[in-house]
Amino acid sequence: MIKKKVTIVNDAGLHARPAAALVKLASKFESDFYIHLYGYKVNGKSILGVMTLAAEKGAELELELDGPDEEEATEAITELIADGFGEVYEDGNE
Amino acid sequence: MDLVKSTRMEMSNQVNNTEMYITGAPACPGIVIGNTSLYQRARPHVSDTQITDDETEVHIHKFYEALDIAEEELEALLENTDMEDLADLIEMQIAILKDPELHNRIEQEISANNKPVDAAIESIFRNYLQVIRENHGETFQNKSVDISDIRDRLLQIIHNKRDDIKEGAILVARELSPREVISFSNRNIKGLITDRGGATSHAAIIARSMNIPTVVGTQRATEVINSDDEVVLDGRNGEVVVHPKDETREKYKSLIEQQFKRQADFESLCKKPNETSDGKTFSLQANIEFAEELSIANKYQAEGVGLLRTESIYLSRKHFQNIPQQVAFYKSILELTTPHQVTIRLFDVGGDKFFGDEGKEQNPFLGWRGIRMLLEQPELLKNQLRAIIKTSEDFVGRIRILVPMVSTIDEIRKLKDIISEVQNELLNEGIDIDKDIPLGLMVEVPSVALKADLFARHADFLSIGTNDLTQYVLAVDRGNERISNLYDQRHPAIWRLIKEVAEAGERNGVPVSVCGELASDPIAASCLMGLGINALSMNAVVLPSVKQVLRSNSYIEMQQLAEKVLAAETMDDIDNIFSNWETKE
């Protein structure tokens, strides 16, 4: 089992579109996937569960993955979240 | 005897079926007469009985069947939509249908608590929605609508409700989601009437892009209209006549006939050159906000986009930060409008849209909005400029930038500095941008119209936004129903200001166009032509009717008309001039 912390960086937070992207990605892996936040624990493959978290920008999620492909899954999911679900400003030219 | 009988029948008819008028906001023009179907978004009554252990398997099976049907429907919708927002929404609904936790909990609710399938769905969704609302607060309202929408669809499928909507009916509903409008359009719905929503709601825009005559925001349509009532829907002015009297029906029937004839002529008309009967040329463009609106604009041969509104980029999602997504949006518009120009208006919103309650102002229309706000939010402004200028790489000579709410020369100077900064950044990155993108000003603040010569010298073109100009000149809040009778874009004072701007443009060699609602009234458009403005941009659906009037009259007649409105003293004078012109043939 792997546990890893990752911070939401996109301004809009974990709203509907990112939540859909997250569960879509997570569902490709066999490993069980849970997210911990503010004392809640939800199934990371459940979009309704993820949306109940109401995770905003700056929220620190703890990912918990357990299964045969847990390492690849952790890497892929961390990358998606850290990239702001493709919603962040693309480069550093601000 | 017969007379008595028929009189009595007539009386009873009157009691039950008195002609009644209700009005709402026109959302897509066109007149239709037909029978209504009432669409009950309200969920079917959910069973409150318990099921036996033997029945649970059947109910679980029913649940999975409903999921499959709903998913198939959504996949079909997804295939038929090229609107990105809508695709996201449908993807989210599909993800809900596939949610493994949802499956577990509903199965559990059926098998452990002996709940029938509909009650199980109802209670599990209620739990989710409650938690989501508590955690998100008010801001989540929009998304929870999409969640309850999918729940309602599942319940409808389980109750085998074909929702009582007849082919070819005029649909009456409290409100409609974008998904619903698309799915109804597949069933030949003739028209749409809703209690709630505005002409700029997402659902209304979709109705418009599909050319379904629509009236929204009637407040009480579902209260006063029953299923199978005869109604007349006039999408031109937002009027609905319930139980029309014979003479009303006849009146509208002949209007429809006229319209129908016109419609048939429209497409051939639109292929003809844009010139008056005495050969003066003009250009008609479309005002749009979404790529979907271009299907009609192209059908009616619009010469490009005279006003591309970009507020939805921000308002629908936080796209303004995301340059690739903005570029993709602009590209999608430019690709569909070859070889014409597209005039992109910079974000035109008030501060409250970005900064919540802190941005709330006493008089938002006189406040921190348009360029005033953009200059103080350099990141927002630069991101948009960067996206627009970057897009120009592939579309040299086809993009124009339009600046909203300009009121001082200083604003233009500052903006030009920022534009060259962004240009240089992109050039340094080796991007081959269009270095001569024309910069135009919206003429909507009265002081700009009054000093049009000065502003013309600092711009490549001027575009008169009559909607806001009118509200500023007449001191009438367009949204205030109490004084809405005072708001009329054809007011004599407005004509005088437009004349000033047209002449200043001419003197300074700067093209002047009109992109306000005024241009979409065919007679007003003739007047604008008479004042020397030959580029007009409007909602695409009215292009043919404007073109027809402009083509069938001479420029000399239009100049005479313009002289008359300039000499008019009151709105009554204007009304007379307009109705005389209409009946002059």
Which CATH class of chain A?
A: Alpha Beta
Rounded mean pLDDT score of chain A: 86
* Helix and strand composition category of chain A: alpha+beta
Low-confidence stretches of chain A: 88-94
Q: Please tell me what the overall shape of chain B is.
A: globular
How many separate helices of chain B? 25
Q: What's the alpha carbon Rg of chain B, rounded to whole Å?
A: 27 Å
Specify the biggest β-sheet of chain A.
4 strands, antiparallel
CATH superfamily of chain A: HPr-like
Say what the CATH topology of the largest domain in chain B is. Answer: TIM Barrel
Q: How many strand elements of chain A?
A: 4
Q: Roughly how many Å is the radius of gyration of chain A?
A: 12 Å
Strand order of the largest sheet of chain B: 1-8-7-3-4-5-6-2
Separation of the first and last Cα atoms of chain A = 39 Å
The overall number of domains of chain B is 3
CATH topology of chain A: Histidine-containing Protein, Chain: A
Q: Structural class, judged by helices and strands of chain B? A: alpha/beta
How far apart the termini of chain B lie comes to: 49 Å
Number of distinct helices of chain A: 3
Helical amount of chain B:
40-55%
Share of residues in strands of chain B: 5-15%
Molecular structure report:
The complex is a heterodimer of chains A (94) and B (585). Chain A has 94 residues and is α+β, with helices and mostly antiparallel strands. Chain A has one domain: 2-Layer Sandwich (Histidine-containing Protein, Chain: A), CATH 3.30.1340.10. Helices cover 32% and strands 24% of the residues of chain A. In chain A, strands 1-4-2-3 form a 4-stranded antiparallel beta sheet. Chain B is of the alpha/beta class. Chain B has 3 domains: 17-40 and 163-256, Glucose Oxidase, domain 1 (3-Layer(bba) Sandwich), CATH 3.50.30.10; 53-158, PtsI, HPr-binding domain (Enzyme I, Chain A, domain 2), CATH 1.10.274; 265-469 and 496-582, TIM Barrel (Alpha-Beta Barrel). Helices cover 51% and strands 12% of the residues of chain B. Chain B is built from 25 helices and 16 strands. In chain B, strands 1-8-7-3-4-5-6-2 form an 8-stranded mixed beta sheet. In chain B, helix 7 (178-185) runs parallel beside helix 8 and helix 16 (378-391) crosses helix 17. The longest helix of chain B has 26 residues, at 246-271. Chain A binds chain B through residues 10-12, 15-17, 19-20, 23-24, 27, 42-43, 45-49, 51-54, 86-90, 93-94, and chain B through 88-89, 91-92, 95-96, 98-102, 128, 131-132, 135-136, 140, 143, 146-147, 317-318, 321-324, 379, 382-383, 386, 425.
